[in-house]
């Protein structure tokens, strides 16, 4: 035994104004169900149980700007979501309440903004997670 404890990412938490509204968006987008709910907090989990997404309502929440601007609230992290049909996925996400900013850097990845203002990426399976991260940075 090396003495290093085992770590396993179980969930990500996203701050927003309205946890219920943002949970409804991501639940419909990803096909995930609500597994727990409390005042100003909703937890979703992937169908296989491997990853969770919690939405936490914060009264002082300030949405990030995309693309970034000097002096404006910056994103701190963003979800990368793999899809098999990018155009259909963009249309579906927009129909659920996402917006597509005009600033796009490549044809096989789209940066969208969720209803609370957080950017997220949709990318084709062929791109892979590393390609998506490099393309956005």
TrEMBL record:
Residues 8-129 form the VOC domain. InterPro entries: Glyas_Bleomycin-R_OHBP_Dase, Glyoxalase_6, VOC_core. The lineage of its organism: Bacteria, Bacillati, Actinomycetota, Actinomycetes, Kitasatosporales. Gene3D superfamilies: 2,3-Dihydroxybiphenyl 1,2-Dioxygenase, domain 1. PROSITE patterns: VOC. This is VOC family protein. It holds the Pfam family Glyoxalase_6.
């Amino acid at each position: 035994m090396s003495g290093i404890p085992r770590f396993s990412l179980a969930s990500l938490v996203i701050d927003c104004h309205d946890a219920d509204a943002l949970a409804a968006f991501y639940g419909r987008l990803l096909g995930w169900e609500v597994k727990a709910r409390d005042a100003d907090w909703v937890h979703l989990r992937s169908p296989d149980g491997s990853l969770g997404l919690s939405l936490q309502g914060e009264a002082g929440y300030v949405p990030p700007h995309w693309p970034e601007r000097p002096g404006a609230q910056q994103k701190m992290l963003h979800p990368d979501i793999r899809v098999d049909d990018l155009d259909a996925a963009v249309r579906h996400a927009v129909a659920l309440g996402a917006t597509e900013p005009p600033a796009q850097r490549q044809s096989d990845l789209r940066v969208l903004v969720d209803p609370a203002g957080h950017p997220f990426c949709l990318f084709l399976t062929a791109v892979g997670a590393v390609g998506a991260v490099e393309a956005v940075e």
